[in-house]
Amino acid sequence: MYFSAVAIRPLLLKPQWMNGLSERLLVSHYENNYSGALRRLNATRARLAALDWSSTPVFEINGLKREELIAVGSVILHEIYFDSLGGHGDNPPTGLAEPPAGLGPGTRTRFR
């Protein structure tokens, strides 16, 4: 199975300009929670890619697929959260520019 790592998306907003949320809180959440979810997703997908599917017990595959699903959900929710924050906190964007990274190719129409 082929494995391609998902890269962290850049933080486009200016956390120091946000009203009501501290720069420290936003940067910490981005660096720890969002990038942590991406690391977990990439690690789980690497383990799945390295499996010998014919000899691996089904419960192990099931557990890894569950972990992948949880990590994808976390990545998607974090990307929606950060994409939804406005630059000054009073000008939220009208929509996401790109579908979240956890979604595969060709999902843009389903995402909208």
Spans of 5+ residues with little confidence (pLDDT < 50)? none
C-alpha Rg, in Å?
Answer: 17 Å
**Total of helices:** 3
Mean pLDDT: 80
The run of helices and strands is HHH
- Give the terminus-to-terminus CA distance: 29 Å
Major β-sheet annotation: none
Beta-strand portion reads under 5%
The structure class reads: mainly alpha
| Strands, count | 0
**What gross morphology would you assign?**
elongated
What percentage of residues falls in helices of 4 or more residues? 40-55%
What would you note in describing this structure?
This protein is an all-alpha fold. Helix content is 53%, strand content 0%. Helix 1 packs antiparallel against helix 2.
Give a quick precis of the structure.
With 112 residues, the protein is an all-alpha fold.
Walk me through the topology:
Layout: H1 23-50, H2 58-84, H3 108-111
Features:
mainly alpha, 3 helices, elongated
